[in-house]
Task: structure prediction
Amino acid sequence: MIQTTKKLRCHCGDVEIELHLPNGLEKLRRCNCSICARRNAVVGSVKLENLKILKGSENLSCYTFNTHTAQHYFCSKCGIYTHHRRRSNPGEFGFNLACIDGIEIEDYANVPYMDGKNNHPSDHQRTP
Ligand SMILES: [Zn+2]
Result:
């Protein structure tokens, strides 16, 4: 049975988030868009209802830019990106894989980049 619950925390530990992962870690990716390139995090996805802030919501800052659709959250104390509401799928949060307890980030060195810079799913109408 893959179904798991994982805990995600920022560096200082003020922010703790619980992830419910019915299919395990999925949709892992990097992205080369302007913000993802700078933070260079490996990101996974969960449905909105599968992410619960356990503590520290008062320490989370939200950053938006451009279309202001995506909401990028980070700990205002230690500065670590924890999760974001996705622009290409507002029904999902992306989360920072490296914040999950027990993750060995070097095991995810080969997670591919999606081309969010030139080909963001929300910037184009897909033609079949
Ligand atoms: Zn923190």
